[in-house]
Structures are given as structure tokens and as C-alpha cells.
């Protein structure tokens, strides 16, 4: 590494420490709200906010993100990170609002959709969560975390569909099942449930077709 790069890294570290001390002494003074702030300083405030998040200092983190937005109101990362902190504080409507604001500013960022999905999951809102994880995969198809998150959401959707069916709420069961199909069209359990629903609606031809499809996909399941 060159001497100039070493000096730069040292300088950034020093500035971050200075910012942290300023926040600890007087959070409002670390960034003047009515003066333009350079990109490097904005990024340092974002980095400092992330560090505060990592150490559980959530109010200090929010202050950092708010100060970034005072100088750059359309900064998607600051809106997203503020939303993530709001979710940690169980301020879910605020979290949803802020992360959606970030998505509106930068709709191709997979992590925004993933974290919005996580907020919905924390509130047991599985349908919108699955949509978020699906959109995250559209932005980044090879992301293993998004695949895992979507699989978990689909499993919960299927469980909800089964529960609706047991409670004789067939329309609600069908909605859950269709949502699973949208994301996992080769899910044998979803085909089986769809067949059972068709049978109870007296559509026996469709019921047989769907249950046979489930058996073809997973012949080892005796209950099919």
C-alpha cells in the first residue's frame, strides 16, 4: 500500500473518531443543517451511524442519518438505514415508510426489499414479505439470502393456507396457496392443497389433476 493511501486511511479513521466525539458531546453540532456537506463527509456520517447501530446506540445512529438527510434529502442509504433502526426500535410503520422512501429513490437495490420484507415478517405479514423477497431476487437473482428468505416466507404462507383450510376459510386458503405458486411453482405441498380446495369446491377433475401433480413431484408423501 502506498504512503498516500496509508495517510488517507488514517485521516478517515481520525475524522470518524472526531465525528463520534462530537456526537457524544453534542449530536446536533456534528453537522450544520443549513450548510452543504461534501460527499465524503456524508459517507462518514453514514459509516458512523452504522457503527452506532452495531453497538446498540440507536438514537445516535438516527441522529447521523437525519443529519445526512438535512444536507441530502434524497439519500436512499440514509432513508434505508433509518428505517432499519426504526424496525429495531419496533417502530414498524416508520420503518416501512422510510424503507419505501429509499426504494422509491433507488428501486434496484436488493437489500432495501430484503429488509422491508424482514420488517413485514416481524409483524407476521407474510404476503407483503414474500413480495419483497421476490423483488429482492429480481434485483439480485443469485443472492442466497434472498432465496432463503423467500423459502421461509413461502413455508409460512403454506402453513397459513393449511390453517385457513382447516378453519373452512377456503378463499383465504386459496390466496395463500396462489402466492406460494407465484414464487415456487414446483411446490408439491401447494399443488396438494390446491387439489384439496378444488375437491371441496366440487371441482373433482381439477382436484385429481392437481393432486396427481403433487404425487409426481413428491411420490414419497403418503398423505397425498
Give the overall silhouette.
elongated
Structural class: mainly alpha
**Series of secondary-structure elements, N-terminal to C-terminal:** HHHHHHHHHHH
The helical percent reads: over 70%
H/I helix tally: 11
Q: What is the CATH level 1 assignment of the domain at 1-107?
A: Mainly Alpha
Largest sheet entry: none
CATH architectural label of the domain at 1-107: Alpha Horseshoe
pLDDT averaged residue by residue: 83
Strand percentage, roughly?
Answer: under 5%
CATH superfamily of the domain at 1-107: Tetratricopeptide repeat domain
Fold blueprint:
Elements: H1 3-25, H2 39-54, H3 58-71, H4 76-88, H5 92-105, H6 110-122, H7 126-139, H8 144-166, H9 170-183, H10 188-200, H11 204-217
Helix pairs in contact: 1-2, 2-3, 2-4, 3-4, 4-5, 5-6, 6-7, 7-8, 8-9, 8-10, 9-10, 10-11
